[in-house]
Write a structure and sequence with these properties.
This protein has 210 residues and is of the alpha+beta class. It folds into three domains: 54 residues, no CATH class; 73 residues, Sandwich (Jelly Rolls), CATH 2.60.120; 78 residues, Sandwich (Jelly Rolls). It has two helices and 14 strands.
Length: 210
């Protein structure tokens, strides 16, 4: 898969260089032949950076962060029965998760992420619902202060077993798990501070008191 991605990048780069070269030659009489190796490398880096910034939906595959995709925060969404993702850092598996619905992660340069039966979008562009009166949020990962008011919320079972984890940040190297619970009673109350993240499954979120 990485070989296919690499070849696609090379083909795309050659096409971009050809177009730029033709445009420059026609407009200013400048040819790629006259550019130094350093100038060509800089041009390639600029094109790669521009392409990464324009990418909105990242399909299943294996990606090197900082090379194939930009570092940053992403939302990963389930697309099938085998949905999962694996993040490798320094040659070791850092995070592996089966995607029931969606999760939010933070990726750093040099990491490798493998996305299976799912897709990713930049977190800032992700369409994630917000809690409203009388309508619950279904299992997934949500940010307090953005998708639901910070403070106490109620999680009610939607199956035989519910579970939740409170994170200090999107899942990644900088995130800390601040609380975790598996429960079988009908509901639990969770206190989540501003900008913390709540990941839950087997239950639904309601505003406290509803």
């Amino acid at each position: 898969m990485r070989g296919v991605i690499y070849m696609k990048r090379i083909v795309g780069l050659l096409l971009a260089l050809f177009i730029i070269g033709v445009g420059c030659a026609g407009a200013e009489g400048v040819s790629l032949d006259l550019m130094s190796d350093e100038e060509l490398l800089q041009l390639r880096n600029d094109i790669d950076a521009e392409l990464r910034s324009r990418r909105t939906e990242i399909p299943a595959g294996e990606y090197i962060v900082g090379s194939d995709i930009a570092a940053g925060e992403y939302a990963l969404f389930n697309k099938g029965a085998l949905a999962s993702y694996l993040i490798v850092a320094d040659g070791f598996a850092d995070i592996y998760s089966v995607l029931r619905t969606f999760e939010i992660v933070s990726l750093s340069n040099g990491q490798i992420i493998t996305i299976t039966d799912a897709y990713a979008v930049p977190y800032a562009q992700a369409q994630i619902p917000a809690l409203s009166s009388g309508a619950p949020l279904y299992e997934g990962m949500y940010e307090a202060g953005k998708h639901f008011p910070a403070g106490k919320v109620t999680l009610r079972l939607s199956g035989p077993l519910g579970a939740y984890t409170v994170y200090s940040a999107p899942r990644g190297a900088q995130a800390q798990a601040l609380g975790f619970l598996m429960f079988t009673n009908s509901e639990v109350t969770v206190d989540v501070a501003e900008n913390q993240f709540l990941l839950f499954s087997g239950c639904e979120m309601y505003a406290e008191g509803e």
